[in-house]
Design goal:
This is FadR/GntR family transcriptional regulator. By secondary structure, this protein is an all-alpha fold. It has helices at about 5-10, 10-15, 20-35, 50-55, 60-70, 100-105, 110-130, 130-145, 150-170, 175-185, 185-195, 200-215, 220-255, and strands at about 75, 85.
Length: about 260
């Protein structure tokens, strides 16, 4: 029994029995942003006040989380300048159930089909179960997205909190964790997609429509708004993957002619 692979593949079991502080939770959230390439090596972190507002904790909690990650070599902290993401690779770190590498090993069509099949059920349930505190949090995140302007990194930090808050409102933590993992698919490409002109504005409009439908507890409208949002993600990711494929083929042809 000692070396059972089943036990080694279940990192959440032991942690679920621990008493975790708010600092630990925020440190994990920031680590996930690095693991999924929302935050890349060399990126400056938003300020403590901004992160505290988005993550709904105190500045002291954010500061403690950054210090904890600095001690692990994930964040670089220096006097007189913003904290930066260190040159680390966390792609094998488990996000909720699986690692980003595991999710990215599937093709786009499989992940898109899974999101349509499962995520729309989850957000439909969220429409019926969401509480006022979560709706207020979503409104705050919408405002943070608006204030972030055209900064793709800042938008995606808010975006993840926005999506996860809705998933958790469904009332089923396992389904919530599963669709959170699907959300992380090809996040490196999502950041590139959100850097394109008009992309943040279009996504913000989608989010506003989703919150309006959630506030009415209108399951059908929430599912329709989310379906539209998921189709946008699918189309932009597909376009980017095609561009990368063309670039790689072009480089390959260039190498052969030399």
């Amino acid at each position: 029994m000692n070396g059972s692979p089943i036990l080694t593949q279940m990192p959440k079991v032991g942690r679920s029995l621990e008493r975790r502080t708010a600092r630990d939770v925020i440190a994990d959230k920031l680590m996930v942003l690095v693991a999924t390439n929302m935050l890349r090596p060399g990126d400056e972190l938003p300020g403590e006040r901004e992160l505290a507002n988005v993550l709904h904790v105190s500045r002291e909690t954010v500061r403690g989380a950054i210090q904890a990650l600095a001690a692990r070599g994930i964040i670089e902290v220096s006097q007189g300048s913003r904290s930066r993401v260190a040159n680390v690779d966390l792609s094998d770190v488990t996000v909720t159930i699986a690692s980003p590498n595991a999710i990215d090993s599937y093709d786009l069509e499989a992940v898109h089909a899974a999101r349509l099949h499962i995520e729309l059920k989850v957000v439909g349930d969220a429409a019926e179960n969401i509480d006022e505190d979560t709706l207020r949090k979503l409104e705050t995140l919408l405002e943070a997205q608006r204030l972030g302007g055209d900064d793709a990194m800042r938008f995606l930090i808010c975006d993840r909190e926005f999506h996860v808050a809705i998933y958790r409102a469904c009332g089923n933590p396992l389904l919530s964790d599963f669709v959170t993992d699907l959300y992380t698919y090809m996040m490196n490409y999502r950041r590139s997609a959100m850097s394109r002109p008009g992309a943040i504005g279009a996504s913000y409009k989608d989010h506003s429509d989703i919150v309006e439908a959630l506030a009415r507890r209108d399951r059908e409208a929430v599912v329709a708004a989310f379906r539209h949002h998921l189709m946008r993600i699918y189309e932009t990711t597909k376009e980017l993957l095609a561009e990368v494929g063309r670039a790689e083929r072009s480089m390959g042809k260039g190498a052969k002619t030399r």
